[in-house]
């Protein structure tokens, strides 16, 4: 294992060292949030959080807990940097991202601190590639102030049933309208396209509905273009939790199971479309 | 209209719509006493397809008793209802189709597994009846084959190929790619397949003819035939008269009527060519290449369009197309053509037709001087004034 021959002395210079036997466990989950180049990395002793934002209206977070990594050492309480996500993904797949079982790329990711590049050591079949990606000044992620006490409605669905709906959604519609209600139609996705409108209704007692907790009837519209990137996360996930708070902000939490059966989370926050509302 | 389709029939309906989408951009929906008719015609009116689903196909079939209902809508939007054919079979238990004439909406409700309900409210336009004039029973050559045979045959042609030529003798059928006469013959690649009569379920040849027609629509029908496993019948006469491809079952019938390239008029069989249309190509003689389309205004109390001469003289004629009948239609067509000039939605018939019939048309420079005698008028048509 060439990666483990790194001397301990070297390691001590790094504020963050994270190793994975299978780089795909990281690249897959990062793909779920790739809709902009700039990604903010925040590492804490609990794990790594990667944030991507769009138009101050949409935020995607991928959480990779410390336990997912075979090695995870952090010298500070919070290590933050920003890198180009597309470049990082290209590097993680530098060996072609083979999906053949038994063949995987090992990864060791190191960061020395502010001003230093993010260094990736990638190894597959005895070949080691070292990639250095320049880091940028980390931006402050938007705080959507989405707090669980303000959640008015929440449903947890098996992703399977939402995947079908999202794959069929009428993309000529500018918005996706989400209705959550303690009464009929319980959970409804609506589109308003060129040829007419369409509704997808999920009854609260469906097998696909794991949890249904709706207190008030809420109908909000979200820009289709903003929600579209979330389908990448949906495709990878096995369960999804849909929540809205009193302001209509949408939180989509996806539970993603990786190749090794471990669980990671991807979260999307989206602001409602204000058009057509009183304000 | 209020009807319900259940189980495997939902997929059959979906396949029919997908295969109609190979023909045209619009779906004409007409609930009739003898079943639900779904039709489509291509923009150059050289191909027409109709599926008729008998009332027994549905688990509920009710149609307005007081008036005839007719509408047309973008076929893409209907296709979207049945977007994923693969999951359709596994997930959809019931499909409910209902009209809301107040809102001009056709509602498709799919009742899926796990209680998921998908509702599509599609807006439609009022339309006239669309009916091709064809008589497959009078055709000299009749064949019937399992869809597999034709699928395997068509497979050998590249997807870019537009037309195929089918030739028959009393023993065999040859299918080859059609090469435009203007194309450089030395560079063209020819692919020809020969099918023996015993590969067919039914093989009757009375006229040893060759017909050339578009492959795209045939592929569309095969899509349907293959998934339903229904044998495909083929009826044709002489070059220039349409080829009719059909599938039939106890509860459904599908007919695809495709124009064929016209041949030398001397080779014509029983069909009398109509008088030569006026010389002016730009006027309307291009419509003489069009396939038989007979339209009539439905007796709708709430007809939106202004009354046009069609109301008076375009009556529904579904009987076999006779030569004199065609002439009459042709004259009507000229009137209707004028009515339509203001209609910006009218498909660009002329361009496509001239492409489609490129090999029989004189080059454009000669066009205005040579009367075209080899085309026959099968149809008149008019669009809704919307």
Automatic annotation (TrEMBL), chain A:
Its main location: nucleus. GO terms for cellular component: checkpoint clamp complex. SUPFAM superfamilies: DNA clamp. GO terms for biological process: DNA damage checkpoint signaling; DNA repair. It comes from the Eukaryota. Gene3D superfamilies: 3.70.10.10. It is found in: Nucleus. Keywords: DNA damage, DNA repair, Nucleus. Pfam families: Rad1. The keyword Membrane does not apply. CDD domains: PCNA (cd00577). Belongs to the rad1 family. Component of the toroidal 9-1-1 (RAD9-RAD1-HUS1) complex, composed of RAD9A, RAD1 and HUS1. The 9-1-1 complex associates with LIG1, POLB, FEN1, RAD17, HDAC1, RPA1 and RPA2. The 9-1-1 complex associates with the RAD17-RFC complex. RAD1 interacts with POLB, FEN1, HUS1, HUS1B, RAD9A and RAD9B. Interacts with DNAJC7. Interacts with RHNO1; interaction is direct. This is Cell cycle checkpoint protein RAD1. It comes from Betta splendens (Siamese fighting fish). The lineage of its organism: Eukaryota, Metazoa, Chordata, Craniata, Vertebrata.
UniProtKB/TrEMBL annotation, chain B:
Residues 297-386 are annotated as: Disordered. GO terms for molecular function: double-stranded DNA 3'-5' DNA exonuclease activity. GO terms for cellular component: checkpoint clamp complex. It is found in: Nucleus. Pfam families: Rad9 (PF04139). Residues 332-342 have a biased composition (Acidic residues). It comes from the Eukaryota. The keyword DNA damage applies. It catalyses: Exonucleolytic cleavage in the 3'- to 5'-direction to yield nucleoside 5'-phosphates. Keywords: DNA damage, Exonuclease, Hydrolase, Nuclease, Nucleus, Phosphoprotein. Residues 361-377 have a biased composition (Polar residues). Component of the 9-1-1 cell-cycle checkpoint response complex that plays a major role in DNA repair. The 9-1-1 complex is recruited to DNA lesion upon damage by the RAD17-replication factor C (RFC) clamp loader complex. Acts then as a sliding clamp platform on DNA for several proteins involved in long-patch base excision repair (LP-BER). Belongs to the rad9 family. This is Cell cycle checkpoint control protein. It comes from Betta splendens (Siamese fighting fish). The lineage of its organism: Eukaryota, Metazoa, Chordata, Craniata, Vertebrata.
